[in-house]
Design brief:
It contains 4 helices and no strands. With about 170 residues, the chain is mainly α. About 5% of the residues are buried.
Length: about 170
């Protein structure tokens, strides 16, 4: 019994380390995806080196503003069981969704001005399409990995570049 207790204590002492490693791996994956996204977008928009240097901080701030807004509204609209919500709750959820969309549009308008300081209007016009394309490729990649298919190529040289297949 004493040995069992010792083993359990050791396991519990190691648990935070194991969990931190798992979180670290998750964070690493997110950072790799973000880096691949930036590489795809800058390549897709044909940004020069000087444009890339100025674009990346603005784009990171833009993404963080969108993400913070999304998280705020997700927390605000948490409902234990949305399918069984009453009419007044559903109306609030609809209004909150519209408020979220308005905030995102406001963020996009504000950042469009900043993006135009570092890129041409034609390049900025292509930004939403580049983001959608990357998202579509990422979803495809995740589906292929989930299915265990070898018909994909993960982040690496040329990954996600226009005209290239996974």
């Amino acid at each position: 019994m004493n040995r069992f207790l010792t083993i359990m204590i050791l396991i519990f002492l190691q648990l935070p380390t194991v969990m931190a490693q798992h979180e670290g791996k998750k964070k690493d994956k997110i950072e790799k995806i973000h880096a691949a996204k930036l590489a795809y977008i800058t390549d897709r928009l044909h940004l020069s080196e000087s444009q890339v240097v100025n674009f990346i901080p603005v784009y990171n701030d833009y993404e963080n503003a969108i993400k913070d807004t999304r998280h705020y509204f997700m927390e605000k609209t948490k409902v234990p069981n949305p399918e069984s919500a009453d009419d007044s709750t559903v109306k609030v959820m609809i209004d909150d969704n519209l408020d979220y969309q308005e905030r995102v549009i406001g963020i996009k308008r504000r950042y469009n001005e900043q993006f135009l300081k570092v890129m041409a209007p034609q390049q900025l016009k292509e930004l939403p399409a580049a983001e959608r394309e990357f998202k579509k490729m990422l979803i495809h990649e995740m589906e292929m990995r989930r299915m265990g298919s070898d018909d994909h190529h993960g982040p690496g040289p040329g990954w996600g570049r226009p005209g290239r297949r996974f």
